């Protein structure tokens, strides 16, 4: 019955579509057309489409097939003409009001979310831990932080990811720390992840449920090619080759400023498939997580931003080196000055005779405030006229003048 119903509408179990159509652009789908008409007829009483679109009975669709579908397609507005895409209408923007911390008062909470539309709970996940608004956007971390993990909130998925420090890296000449999604994020045994799979506890490690976001749709998310996933995910699916270099979800952060320099957000969308009674073509499915496509969002700091970050990183080092240089130079100058003073004092020492040992016929004349010059007198208690002045007037060095003994009477 089910197979016949879908066949009458021109539908098959397997479709071939481009990634653009599956992700954002969308493609016409009969079931989406029916859903659009059902929403319009939701307020009607006789099966007529609301808004004056005419009499369209959904039951006629299954009886007349394409003929009625064409009428449905013509009756739909251009922007909702029964098109389907997994991320239709999403462009990496968030329409809710986000409140976050600026870091004032507590720099460790900079860029961390406080609420969404004034609420601390998302109202999506049944568990309080998973449903609580927490984490940051991952673009800014606290400066000089030595933390080994980072909690990142993704608005479109309404959940957080715990990124761990896995390696030191280098981007644009800057030494960075790499924070990445590890195997614990999608591990079903992890308490932090189990609450996201409360509605589908049978899911293996490596995937997480997205059903609560869209009325229970059978869609799950993983890392590309089921990286870090359970071996059971690879059964029945060919062409999967997980590789950390190509499929890792990571952010490279500058440890000094806390700014994110580079990042790769890589996630894969999968659909849950299982045997459906009445569809012979699905008898070989069993229970399979079927990969649809994976997406990579790339973020790289521009050259002028890198230059500013380099200046901010090098500035403290330059200040520290300059301070050390000035300190060393000051010490050297003090030592040189001290040695000069010592040498100057030694060169000014004088060879003198103590007054108590001088002959009685000599008297001492003090020079330079500390040395004295012995001279003869005239036997009458007066200094010999012109003895010392004559020596100094002849440009006799001071030290020689001090040794000069006048003997003339």
UniProtKB/TrEMBL annotation:
Q: Where's it found, cell-wise? A: Cell membrane; Membrane, Caveola
The regions listed as transmembrane in this protein's record are 317-342
- The UniProt record lists the keyword Ubl conjugation: no
Q: Which UniProt keywords apply?
A: Cell membrane, Disulfide bond, Glycoprotein, Membrane, Receptor, Transmembrane, Transmembrane helix
Q: Does the keyword rRNA processing apply?
A: no
Q: Which GO terms label this protein's molecular function in UniProt?
A: scavenger receptor activity
Which Pfam family name is an example for this entry? Answer: CD36
Kindly list any coiled-coil regions of this protein. none
Q: How does it sit in the membrane?
A: Multi-pass membrane protein
Main localization category: membrane
Q: Name one GO cellular component term.
A: cytoplasm
Which branch of life, at top level? Answer: Eukaryota
InterPro entries in the cross-refs: CD36_fam
Q: Which family is this sequence assigned to? A: Belongs to the CD36 family.
What is the protein name stated in its UniProt record?
Scavenger receptor class B member 1
